[in-house]
Amino acid sequence: MTTTVRTRVAIIGAGPAGLLLSHLLADAGIESIVLDQRSREEIESTIRAGILEQGTVEILESTGASERVRTAGSRHDGIELRFAGEGHRIDFDALVGRSVWLYPQHEVLKDLIAARLAAGQDLRFGVTAERVEDTASDRPRVIATDAAGAPLVIEADFVVGADGSRSVAREAVTGSSTGGHFREYPFAWFGILCEAPPSAAELIYSNSPDGFALVSQRSATVQRMYFQCDPATDPSAFSEAELWDALQRRVPGTRLNEGPIFQRDVLRFRSFVAHQLLNGRVALVGDAAHTVPPTGAKGMNLAVADVLILERALRALLLDRDDRLLADFPETALRRIWKAQHFSWWMTSMLHAAPDASDFDRLRQLGELRSVVESEAGSTYLAEAYTGWPLDATR
Ligand code: PHB
């Protein structure tokens, strides 16, 4: 027997985008249902990136979505770019008066889930959305299967696909599950988590003749590090000693603190922007709308920016019956999305060694890095983009 439930906004996906959207809508008195195929435990334990723009932190804090971000997260006022054996600090605070916060995405999710449940949000885990129907009507519907395997239909005034890079809502918006502009990269990241204190106070983005490495951290006792690898790499193919050797060779000049490696993964990445973000009464936000390579640390931040734009449009639509902001949503969101796409592509191409790079390419890349670190204008672009463009401009 099919159960049909009715709500104002049906949100597919309990990631940062879907949960923050439900939080902001509730504040405006708009009821929603959030569905996710995964269990709460899975959502809260999946390791993702950890850099939050200053604007993201301000939104999480000012809306009560996360009270811990500023106390449990750590402020970073700069990063180091390392190449040709030397480190160069990009001082965000001095250049643009802004900072970023290192606060892992799963911690943001724990805070958001706790806040939503405490507020009585209808939040359903283990529910698989199959498709979205009646997109063009004012009663679009999500066809789903509930946690017990029974058919479930959610009828709403509006449906939001916040369901990640393998979005099922995308088809209802773009006409195909893959439709979009995209670019593949001939490399991936080998990521590790290890028990050892941070090797440096700030993140190190290193370009070396052996390829890229990123030295990041999670806490006073855990480090997160990545090095460039072939996308076909088997994560279990390396011994711990080989992993340390691979990392250390790519960060010459800094002695990495070693410790037991307790997690390893290979992250394939690409750049993607869906051909359309809105169709009738269905919109896409976050990774369902776009993906960026992780080098610019933009993924979750871009999802937050999308949500702020869409939430304002939904308030106008559902409270004032004014659909003008909704009509503008794709263009407004895409302006920031393409800037972030460019920044993520640029950081990626500037720091990685392409497998087919010629001597010209490698020497040009060093010239590009010098143009950034030896010029205040060059470093200011990086600082401005990394810490995040003002969110007001997106509204
Ligand atoms: C991470 O800590 O996981 C991280 C930090 C910065 C990035 C990507 C990942 O650009």
Summarize the model shown:
The chain has helices at 16-27, 40-45, 54-62, 69-72, 92-96, 105-118, 170-174, 240-250, 299-320, 324-351, 359-373, 376-387, and strands spanning 3-6, 9-12, 32-36, 51-53, 74-76, 78-83, 86-91, 100-102, 122-125, 128-133, 141-145, 151-155, 158-161, 180-195, 204-208, 211-217, 222-229, 261-274, 278-279, 282-284, 290-291. With 395 residues, the protein is an alpha/beta fold.
Textual characterization of the structure:
With 395 residues, the protein is α/β, with parallel strands linked by helices. The chain has a domain at 3-74 and 100-181 and 271-355: 3-Layer(bba) Sandwich (FAD/NAD(P)-binding domain), CATH 3.50.50.60. Helix content is 36%, strand content 29%. The chain is built from twelve helices and 21 strands. Strands 7-6-15-16-17-14-18-21 form an eight-stranded mixed β-sheet. The protein has a six-stranded mixed β-sheet with strand order 9-3-2-13-20-19. A hairpin with a 2-residue loop joins β19 (278-279) and β20. α1 (16-27) packs parallel to α6 (105-118) and α1 (16-27) packs parallel to α9 (299-320). The longest helix is centred in the last third of the chain and has 28 residues, at 324-351. The chain is globular, with a radius of gyration of 21 Å. It starts with a strand and ends in an 8-residue tail after the last helix. The mean pLDDT is 96. The chain binds P-hydroxybenzoic acid. The site of P-hydroxybenzoic acid has 10 residues, from β16.
Task: Looking at this protein, list some descriptive labels.
395 residues, alpha/beta, FAD/NAD(P)-binding domain, 8-stranded mixed beta sheet, 6-stranded mixed beta sheet, globular, binds P-hydroxybenzoic acid
